[in-house]
Amino acid sequence: MATTHLTAIQEVIEDLDYRTIYSPPEESAPFERLSVLIGNDAQQRPLTLQLYFINDIAFAVGGGEDEEDTHDAIFLQFMLLLPTPVQADRFGEVAEYVLLINRILPVGAFGISRPDGTVYFQYSLGLAEREVDENVLDEVVQMIEVFVNKFEGNIAEISSGKMRAAAAIQALTEEGVVPPPLGPTATT
User: Based on C-alpha coordinates, what's the Rg of the chain?
Assistant: First the structure.
């Protein structure tokens, strides 16, 4: 197999003791992807971080004549779909919780998709070229692992109706995990 920028990233991530699976472009997904197992949830379902270049998706769906315009920024996408779907009547509760925790995350954000009820974590790393500094890659993957491990359990509990968002937020407050206050906006 020829070395690509994503397989080079795979080598760095495997050196950090993560299990990975490389998926080359294929007809159903015409761009390369890298899956990184960052752990399991409370039900022992895998938490898999997907990495791919957003630019490859744009090219695959006809976003340009050249695969890489030298003036375009490169975006390495980190995406993790949480395995617990949100019950339809719990969207508001989950949204309340993830919007609050997003205010304390220095990298990336949780989101929720309708109508399928998928909660995800997403981060796009902007790059000047496809090579990623190993230290940056190490920090990003480890931060995402910490964030997902810290908040996934409460998101699953809120998603299934076993916990209220207010109780999860109160627990965070008691731990000292509090987002910075949002002050009044300036008016002109």
Answer: 18
Domains of the chain listed by start with CATH number: 5-61+71-175 (3.30.1460.70)
Map residue 17 onto helix, strand or coil. Answer: coil
| Sequence-ordered list of residues with C-beta below 8 angstroms from that of 60, at least 6 positions apart, any chain | 25, 30, 31
d(CA 1, CA 187): 58
Can you read off the two tokens belonging to residue 71?
């003036």
pLDDT in tens, the chain (188 residues): 678 999 999 999 999 999 999 999 888 888 999 999 999 998 899 999 999 999 988 877 775 545 555 557 899 999 999 999 999 999 999 999 999 999 999 999 999 998 889 999 999 999 999 989 999 999 999 999 999 999 999 999 999 999 999 999 999 999 998 887 887 765 55
Contact 5, 31 (CB under 8 A): no
Q: What CA–CA distance (Å, rounded) separates 142 from 92?
A: 29
- Note the pTM of the prediction, 2 decimals: 0.88
How is residue 113 annotated by DSSP? Answer: E
Could you give the CA distance from residue 94 to residue 111 in angstroms, rounded to a whole number? 9
| C-alpha 87, offset from chain centre | 21
- Do 68 and 136 form a contact (C-beta atoms < 8 A)? no
